[in-house]
Design goal:
The complex is a heterodimer of chains A (407) and B (245).
Chain A (H helix, E strand, L loop, with lengths): L16 H27 L14 H12 L1 H12 L9 H22 L8 H4 L6 H23 L6 H31 L12 H28 L5 H32 L2 H10 L6 H20 L1 H4 L2 H27 L10 E2 L10 E2 L8 H34 L1
Antiparallel strand pairs in A: 1-2
Chain B lengths: L9 E6 L8 H9 L10 E5 L24 E3 L2 E3 L1 E5 L8 H5 L5 E3 L5 E3 L9 H5 L6 E2 L18 E2 L5 E3 L8 E2 L5 H4 L6 H5 L5 E5 L6 H7 L16 E4 L8
Parallel strand pairs in B: 1-13
Antiparallel strand pairs in B: 1-12, 2-5, 3-4, 6-7, 8-11, 9-10
The chains are: A mainly alpha (407), B alpha+beta (245).
Chain lengths: 407, 245
């Protein structure tokens, strides 16, 4: 009796039909994206829709988005420990799992954006410490290592219970500031740039932390709801309530921060700051971002989350989570494109685009960006890979749990 | 005062009173550097006189026109001046600060250069540059002719960094080098040499006797977007208008 269960993964739960379809679908998407990336490697970044004015696109939106998604985990796990929010504790394992998976995928998302991905190791060989990007890569590595450690400790059933509790508490106290730093440094990649008035606001770090908590929590909720639907994963009622409250609050704070930025720019009326906002506000050519952020991913999920009658229905809760993520993704697009689309010097003939077509100008005042199938393919593959990691990780967690329960 | 300065501090003054907006410097730049089609390290913007702050014309109102050579303002209050813009070789260069691998660096003489063997192609420098002067090699170079024109050889700094190569590799960022291969051998940057009206004055800002140092110091010289604190090494002499002090 009481055999050591240190390799519980060796007792896999049989795959059902739904799981097989789901995993194959994800596998196909990953391979499709891999193919797209190989194609991009042969052509260069010319295969993307990015050009010199809008020189960051889908990869950077998604990078910032995936980094944000990773927040939920450690905030949830650490919040439960540090602030003693007991109702969130059952979500800690899923939280830490999504944190590890998302931050890994975020790091992977940088690679296809590079013109010379084979030189990425130079960041470690010749780091330039004044670059926020170097710090971001460091904190990503630290955060990933941290999440994996946390996950390992959580599931060492052989560890003496008291000691495990103490280790988890200690990790929680370190985890919370690490998570805040991760999102702040990612925000500072943008927020510190004097050349981009749209980015250059001290609100950027708080905004990233808030939107990270928001989208990270939404992801955990979604994973828990899918698990509830397909794996009879049960959570106490107060956990759902706490989750909804956390999401609704984060959403309100997020929109409050974005809104105060809008007010500051509108009231100040400084042309170089107005340029981006005018494109995004209703009437501008990028106004769909405004509607996605404020209504589809703002007002609608907020109402659904604060109304008990709606949120007790798993399908509605899942819908709110998805909408919240749509809104946060819209914010990432708004951020990156808004910052780059109108260069500071709006003087004829505009900026050189670096591309030439007979009979067309090589200059642009306002950038144009239409992502290509290569970019969609690669980003879809990264999202599929993330789903794959979470699915496999979740199954592993459950099998460890069951093994722990029977040991 | 014995001005025994050994380090050079290269700088340039562009006299907008002289500039006729002919784009010779821009085309010369393309030629000496073998810049592919669609690449412009150097552009001649149509601005209003004195508009180097980025606040007095087009960023306040929309530009008069998206075409070059169209005056700003409404008749009869029309204003126009040419503003040649290439890399400003800033003392506090945002691109140098953000480059994660130090591929963009500032030499002791103040020249901001890109090491084509180091650049990872993340384009953070493009995001950081306020002047929009950097161009990226998205794919293979698209050249109008099938032979190399211009300087035509690799050029490395004394510490061996590849700062010029006639055919830039795919996936790197490039920009004005201040013709590093020429200034290192005592020649002038090519844009200075080809300017038909002598609007560009190049020299050592550390040498108080030099024309460039005197013009840059005379009080009338301005920098581009000075409020950003980048402190460019390129100075502009704004168009003097009648009735102005």
């Amino acid at each position: 009796m009481a055999a050591r269960v240190d390799t519980p993964g060796l007792r896999p739960v049989a795959l059902g039909r739904t799981s097989r379809i789901w995993l194959s679908l994800l596998g196909i998407l990953v391979f499709w994206g891999l193919g797209a990336w190989i194609y991009q490697l042969t052509q260069g970044l010319i295969a993307t829709g990015m050009r010199d004015v809008v020189s960051w696109g889908l990869y950077i939106f998604s990078f910032a988005f995936f980094v944000g998604l990773s927040a939920g985990g450690l905030i949830m796990a650490s919040g439960a420990e540090v602030f003693g929010v007991k109702s969130l504790r059952p979500l800690a394992p899923i939280g830490v799992l999504t944190a590890a998976a998302c931050v890994l995928v975020a790091a992977m998302t940088i690679i296809p954006d590079l013109g010379n991905p084979q030189r990425v190791w130079e960041i470690f060989r010749y780091p330039n410490w004044s670059s926020p990007l170097v710090w971001d890569i460091l904190i990503i590595i630290v955060y990933f290592a941290f999440a994996v450690t946390d996950l390992a400790v959580m599931h060492r059933w052989t560890m003496e219970a008291g000691k495990r509790r103490r280790t988890l508490r200690l990790l929680a106290y370190v985890g919370l500031p690490t998570a805040v730093l991760l999102h702040s440094i990612t925000a500072w990649i943008f927020g510190l740039q004097i050349s981009r008035p749209w980015w250059n606001t001290a609100l950027m770090a708080p905004l990233f932390v808030t939107s990270a908590i928001l989208s990270g929590t939404a992801l955990i909720a979604l994973v828990a709801l899918v698990a509830h639907r397909f794996d009879r994963f049960e959570l106490p009622r107060e956990t759902w309530t706490a989750l909804a409250a956390l999401m609704a609050t984060a959403l309100a704070v997020d929109l409050f921060l974005v809104g105060s930025d809008y007010v500051t720019i509108l009231w100040g009326n400084v042309p170089r700051e107005r340029a981006a906002l005018d494109l995004i506000l209703p009437g501008g050519s990028w106004q769909w971002l405004f509607w996605l952020e404020w209504v589809v991913g703002g007002l609608v999920p907020f109402v659904l989350l604060v109304t008990p009658r709606f949120r007790i229905r798993p399908a509605v809760f899942a819908l709110s989570s998805v909408l919240v993520m749509v809104g946060v993704y819209a914010f990432r697009i708004e951020l990156v494109v808004g910052g780059m689309i109108k260069p500071l010097l709006q003087l004829p003939p505009g900026n050189a685009t670096g591309s030439y077509r007979l009979g067309q100008t090589s200059f642009q005042f306002q950038g144009i960006y239409h992502p290509t199938w290569v970019e969609y393919g690669i980003v879809t593959a990264l999202a599929a890979f993330l789903a794959l990691l979470i699915t496999i990780g979740y199954r592993w967690l459950r099998s460890v749990e069951r093994a722990g329960a029977t040991a | 005062m014995a001005a025994e300065t050994t380090t050079k501090r290269w700088g340039m003054v562009i006299d907008q009173n002289r500039c006729i907006g002919c784009w010779t410097c821009a085309v010369g730049c393309k030629e000496i550097n073998n810049e592919p089609l669609g690449f412009w390290w150097n552009r001649i913007l149509t601005a209003a006189p004195g508009d180097t702050t980025g606040e007095s014309s087009a960023t306040v109102a929309d530009p008069a026109s998206e075409s070059i050579d169209v005056p700003h303002g409404t008749f009869p209050e029309l204003d126009m001046a040419y503003l040649p813009v290439a890399c400003q070789h800033c003392e506090d260069a945002p691109c140098v600060k953000v480059c994660p691998v130090g591929a963009t660096f500032r030499r002791d003489d103040g020249t901001v250069l890109v090491d084509y063997e180091r650049c990872i192609g993340c384009r953070y420098c493009i995001a950081a540059c306020p002047y929009g002067i950097r161009v990226f090699n998205w794919g293979d170079a698209d050249q109008p002719v099938d032979f190399t024109i211009g300087y035509g050889k690799d050029y490395r700094t004394t510490d061996g960094r590849l700062v010029f190569t006639p055919d830039r590799p795919r996936g790197v960022v490039e920009k004005c080098t201040l013709c590093v291969e020429r200034i290192d051998t005592g020649e002038q940057p090519f844009c200075v040499e080809v300017c038909p009206v002598g609007a560009r004055i190049f020299g050592d800002l550390n040498d108080p006797e030099s024309e460039v140092a005197q013009l840059a110091d005379d009080g009338g010289a301005t920098q581009l977007l000075p409020d950003l604190g980048t402190n460019p090494r390129i100075f502009y002499l704004p168009v003097e208008q009648e009735g102005s002090v």
